[in-house]
Amino acid sequence: MYQQMIFVNLPVNDLDASKKFFTELGYSINPQFSDEKAASVVISDTIMAMLLTKPFYATFTDKEIADATKTSEVLVCLSAESRDQVDQLVDRAIAAGGSPTGHTQDHGFMYGRAFDDLDGHTWEVVWMDPAAIQG
């Protein structure tokens, strides 16, 4: 059965530093789709973050590249299997040089925290009680 995938393309200032950051979060780099201009971060079987140097990113758009440390251009939200997994991933991101952002959200059936990566892109990590999802 076909599973649709998502490739989130993000401009980065320092490709090597960004690769190190995401591998410290426990993700891997797919060398088949990585070179000196880009790195393919494998988040899951269907989610990839494509880290692109700003000059390479610019070849895909005629728009100005947002400075994610000053302007919010996207909020990337990842699901987690548990509240503990939310905390573990966000804590690893902060330890790897990311910054906490936003406020912890605890609604009982849903729990989430967020961090900004090295380039200011915001990543939310959210757990939802499976019973709440099923209705």
What do you see in this structure?
With 135 residues, the chain is of the alpha/beta class. Helix content is 24%, strand content 36%. It is built from four helices and eight strands, in the order βαβββαβαβββα. It has helices at residues 15-24, 54-57, 83-95, 130-134; strands at residues 6-12, 28-30, 38-42, 47-53, 75-79, 99-106, 110-116, 122-128. Strands 1-4-3-2 form a four-stranded mixed sheet. A four-stranded mixed sheet has the order 5-8-7-6. The longest helix has 13 residues, at 83-95. The relative contact order is 0.19.
> Helix proportion of residues, in percent?
10-25%
**Low-confidence sequence ranges:** none
Strand content: 35-45%
Task: Trace the largest sheet across and list its strands.
Answer: 1-4-3-2
Q: What is the overall pLDDT average?
A: 96
Radius of gyration: 15 Å
Number of helices: 4
- Tell me about the largest β-sheet: 4 strands, mixed
Instruction: State the order of secondary-structure elements, H for helix, E for strand.
Output: EHEEEHEHEEEH
* Structure summary, number of beta strands: 8
Derived structural class: alpha/beta
Mass-distribution shape: globular
Taking the alpha carbons of the first and last residues, their distance comes to 26 Å
